[in-house]
Design goal:
Length: 156
């Protein structure tokens, strides 16, 4: 058993306990100050949010932020999508146009037409769906389908 060379007096024990109590009280003060500042910040944000009111953040803004974080822009993604559609549609058009048999393309669909400014002209087409078939010598092939939406451009 190892013994300490220095005798410990009651005075030294009291000083150690006082130092420990002081450290604990300092930690409790820091915690209380941090809790108070977080509570005040929360209260200020609630007051500020209530004063400003509801702010509508659209999906376009959300997507722009996400694309920005990925290092992309909306025009880059749109260009990629346009190129992809062109790569898929052009060969299909050439295939249909190059058929030697009597064939035609049949499309049917529906959508909601909206007039937003009461000028009796359709301003938007929404919730559009369509189905199509390629008819070869009077026999319909397997049906395919898609969806669409459109907005009137200014001046039309």
């Amino acid at each position: 058993m190892k013994m300490s060379a220095l005798p410990v007096t009651d005075l030294e024990r009291g000083a150690d306990l006082a130092a420990a109590r002081s450290r604990r009280q300092a930690g409790a003060r820091r915690f209380n100050v941090a809790l108070l500042s977080l509570s005040l910040t929360l209260a200020a944000s609630v007051v500020l949010a209530t004063g400003i009111g509801r702010m509508d953040i659209g999906w376009g803004n959300i997507m722009a932020v996400i694309l920005g974080k990925l290092g992309l822009s909306e025009s880059t993604v749109k260009g990629f999508c346009d190129t992809t559609v062109s790569l898929l549609v052009l060969p299909l058009e050439q295939y249909i146009g190059g058929l030697a048999l009597d064939s035609n393309l049949s499309l049917t669909g529906k959508c909601m037409m909206e007039d937003n400014n009461d000028d009796l002209k359709v301003d938007k087409l929404t919730d559009g769906v369509w189905t199509g078939t390629i008819n070869v010598q009077g026999a319909a092939g397997k049906a395919f389908k898609g969806d669409f939406a459109a907005t009137r451009q200014p001046g039309f």
